[in-house]
Design a protein that fits this description.
Blueprint: H1 4-14, H2 17-40, H3 47-51, H4 55-67, H5 75-93, H6 99-118, H7 135-151, H8 154-174, H9 184-192, E1 196-201, E2 211-216, H10 217-226
Antiparallel strand pairs: 1-2
Helix pairs in contact: 1-2, 4-5, 5-7, 5-8, 6-7, 7-8
Length: 231
């Protein structure tokens, strides 16, 4: 979906039959993706949540927290860090602007927009309850910084390298998930043998933080009967 406009621009620039065919396929597939997203999104994001999105929130969560996560309340710090990273990146890439860089920048902005369209930004965090919304933006931001590092002068290069190194520290501190043991087969067996059962569901890998869903006996036994292994 995000890449379809790039295929359109490429087809217009190259004016080749093969590229035109690829463009048509990409656009058709994008239409299918949009339809699937629309049909499988049970509750659209409230208009009030979209209206409440602020530039500091975007800078903090999609840029600043990439380098340093001060906690979920640290939006102001993250916003200033985000502005600093943007300035450093722009200085690093200003000497080598080309079409590839424009494409990379577009994909980054589109990935951020897609993430914000899937869940209210106020409700998600890159390091607690919504890391999946930040995977592609952070990956593309890393790519953009590496792009700038390749053409930056000494001071700019040192600053960009520092940002990248701090992002690795972030990955070490927050980018790993370890799951405490939750015996799924045991829970299913207990569920099937009960008239009512509170079923645990892992949230962040910590059992004390698990979500719980209360099920009735018939709701417990129906999935077991339909299972291929009857377990």
């Amino acid at each position: 979906m995000i890449l379809a406009p790039i295929f359109i621009v490429r087809a217009l620039r190259l004016r080749d039959r093969r590229e035109t065919l690829i463009c048509i396929i990409a656009v058709l597939w994008a239409v299918v993706q949009v339809a699937l997203v629309y049909l499988t999104t049970p509750v659209p994001i409230p208009a009030a949540a979209l209206a409440a999105i602020s530039i500091p929130d975007v800078r903090a969560k999609f840029v600043g927290w990439y380098m340093f996560f001060p906690g979920i309340e640290g939006v102001a710090i993250g916003a200033w860090l985000g502005a600093a990273i943007i300035v450093v990146a722009l200085f690093g890439i200003r000497r080598s602007p080309d079409f590839g860089l424009l494409v990379l920048g577009y994909i980054l902005f589109a990935a951020v927009a897609a993430s914000m369209a899937r869940a209210p930004l106020q409700w998600v965090s890159a390091f607690t309850d919504g890391p999946r919304y930040f995977f592609y933006p952070y990956l593309l931001l890393s790519w953009l910084l590496i792009y700038g590092l390749a053409s930056a002068e000494r001071i700019e290069g040192i600053l960009i390298a520092l940002v990248l190194l701090l992002s690795l520290l972030q990955t070490y501190l927050y980018g790993q998930r370890r799951h405490e043991t939750l015996d799924w087969a045991h829970e299913v067996a207990q569920r099937a043998a009960s008239e009512r059962y509170v079923f645990p569901i892992h949230y962040d890998g910590v059992l004390d933080h698990a979500w719980h869903m209360e099920l009735k006996g018939r709701e417990c036994r129906r999935p077991v009967r339909r299972s291929l292994t009857r377990t």
